[in-house]
UniProtKB/TrEMBL annotation:
The lineage of its organism: Eukaryota, Sar, Rhizaria, Cercozoa, Chlorarachniophyceae. It comes from Lotharella globosa. Residues 247-486 form the Aminoacyl-transfer RNA synthetases class-II family profile domain. GO terms for biological process: prolyl-tRNA aminoacylation. PROSITE patterns: AA_TRNA_LIGASE_II (PS50862). This is proline--tRNA ligase. Its EC number is 6.1.1.15. Residues 172-203 are annotated as: Disordered.
Amino acid sequence: MSIPTNREELKAKLAELGISLIAEENHEAVDTCEKQIEVVKQKDAVAKNLLFQDKKKSVWMCVVKHDRQIDTKKLKTKIGAKQSLRFSGDSMGLLKCAKGCLTPLAIQNDADKKIHVLLDVYFKDESPIGVHPCGEAGNTATWTLKAADLKKYITSFGTTVTEIDFENLDVPKNDKDKGGNKKKKGGKGKKPQKGKTTEKKKVNKEGIDVKKADNPFLWYSQCIYRSGMLEKYDVSGCYVLRPWAFNIWEGITQFFDARIKLLGVKNCYFPLFVPERNLTKEKDHVEGFAPEVAWVTKSGKSDLKEPIAIRPTSETVMYPYYSQWIRSHRDLPLKLNQWCNVVRWEFSYPTPFIRTREFLWQEGHTAFATRLEAEEEVLTILGLYKSVYEDLLAIPVIKGKKTEKEKFAGGLYTTTVEAFIPTSGRGIQGATSHCLGQNFAKMFNISFENTEKKKSFAWQNSWGLTTRTIGVMVLVHGDDKGLVLPPKVAPIQLVIVPILYTKTKEQVLKKGEELRKAFVDAGIRCEFDDTDNHNPGWKFNTYELKGVPLRLEVGPKDLDKGTATLVRRDDGKKVVAKFEDLPKVAKALFVQIHDDMLNRAREVRDKRLRKVTTWKDFVQALKDKCMIMAPWCGEMAAEELIKKKSGEMGPETFDLGEDGTDEVCTMSGAAKSLCIPFKQDPMPSGTKCISCDLGYPDREAKMWCLFGKSY
């Protein structure tokens, strides 16, 4: 039997089997199915292909709907695997597929017949299914064929295909064995080994049971759920913000809102819905957001005359009214801000706080008579965003300008603050301040009569900060015990835990309440946990999980000495102080804790910020989980080549789950431009752009650009 090794041979094999392609699309290299969806026409046909194996090296290839999440524990039970399933990173060894190119059309390379193919029942026989062809650089094309024809191709090489309902992996409980025979009751079973129990091991839901360094994504999931920040919601990508998280968001909003009001910005609110005609008015803008827009098309059972978008951002909601309100130079500047929610229907794997389909934010929209005024405000707002991160959340950020490729769709230019997550080695956009120029003003006729009695178009800005701030804070500061909250945003800054004994209980409780009042009077957010259903050790662990900055322990010995012990959450250090000095000491410790958290985070970030001038060093820095400062010529084609070549290292796949549920997420391994930092070191004469090592025409570097993997 002939074994296809390239696209031409594969087409010949398909023809030999009487299989015709529905569609054949060539495109840029895509290393995830999320990116594949963006470049193909039949988006719902795109299949996600995953390889799993157990400890005995049995291998399964799952061919599933692109947005399907797989619970590997339920899948293990469904297929009768005897060992836990884990991702297999050996797609090259098993199927001769480079990372990012995995495809069931390479099944012929499984000479030893190790692989079992599991096909999602979502793909009915006549349904189209889009997969990469086999051969070199397979991920630069998508071939669409009928699901029945894909099964025909796979089975022609002696490989079995099992159809699985991945949407419902629960195995129904009954009294029959796998063969359908009735199980015998009362028969002899295997005796448990001595000293062992047959009870199923329970998942600890009251603490973190995975180390941050070992599995940062699972650790993150446990932190935000078990600390009481979030609950999952029935709509994927949407979450319930519990009071512990929302209180932190309120602290951020109050900090920022007070400062923009000093600049003359006024709060307002515009509707959630966007008429289609408004959204499509600015071509670049709508193209930038098109894949993420959610639409309302029905009212009850009736179709709407015009589809209504749910705002992904509010430029096209607000600017028709700006054109009505702005007539004269005396109407400028106009500075409005709204605190609201937006919806962006991301195809990529949702990550709580970081990438969600609905999130909270503020969006400022301002209009000025001159470019100079607009550009001054862009940098002023960016400075406030830096202050949110560094002065409030103790997170160091890098200020810079986005490249043309990465700027806000439809804007003149975008400025940004970029943070760094050490455990994943990824940069993350903290907040952006855009100069929109006059583009939107011309589209929506936001014009005015200037001082010379002539018509002019307004210069506009927009700027936004989201609940992503909370996720960045958790990822940067959290440790193996849970959250570590900066004192300025902690819902509870100090918790008092009494050490109670029967004889001295009343005295200790009385002193605890006195101390609570003293802290509150001093402006400290304090809670006295006098509950008696848990012991002090349990309370210590709980408040460490929740990240409370300071813990005060009060017991009978403390009453005798007239002192109490303050314990820092960030480093575990203890400070003993007299009762009357405790509020003053606590306030001083809050300042010290913030500064120490910021300095530690900056030190870690700076050690992982690597300057390189060769591609070899660039790749090694990526492998070492670093952000990279590299010389760049400023050309978009060079930037795209850097991203493409770095992406050939393949995507990264992670276990992600909570409370015993195994889910998986795949993130791009490509390095993109994060920003062009405002602070630029001198460029040595003759330095070439980093892309020149990749065969790009020789170009002299014009600037240092910050590159890295991102969220």
